From TrEMBL:
Biological process terms in GO annotation: regulation of DNA-templated transcription
Keywords: Toxin-antitoxin system
Coiled-coil intervals: none
Cited PANTHER family: ANTITOXIN PARD
Organism this protein belongs to: Alkalidesulfovibrio alkalitolerans DSM 16529
Protein's UniProt keywords contain Chaperone: no
The protein, known as: Putative addiction module antidote protein, CopG/Arc/MetJ family
Recorded superkingdom: Bacteria
SUPFAM superfamilies referenced in this protein's UniProt entry, alphabetically: Ribbon-helix-helix (SSF47598)
Length: 85
């Protein structure tokens, strides 16, 4: 596999190797990909946690038998009516 990097990125990879932290450019790229995967997983988990927090009050209300009357269409129609006065 051949990877093209901008001169700036190539310099950063070279600096990492020259620092002694990595033996070669491949190690730098592998570590960067691992970091990216970890970052993506963290972002996914944060979004999932936020969604769960947002849904928790509604789930608690549903478990205690507190429901709104009507369906989703009724709720959307009511919201639209409020918005348009």
């Amino acid at each position: 596999m051949h990877v093209s990097l901008t001169p700036e990125l190539e310099a950063r990879v070279r600096q990492k190797v020259e620092s002694g932290l990595y033996n070669n450019a491949s190690e730098v790229i592998r570590e960067a990909l691992r970091f990216m995967e970890t970052h993506e997983q963290l972002i996914y988990q944060m979004k999932l946690d936020a969604l769960r927090r947002e849904l928790a009050p509604g789930a608690a209300q549903a478990e205690s038998g507190q429901f709104v009357s009507g369906g989703v269409r009724d709720i959307l129609a009511e919201a639209k009516a409020i918005r348009h006065g």
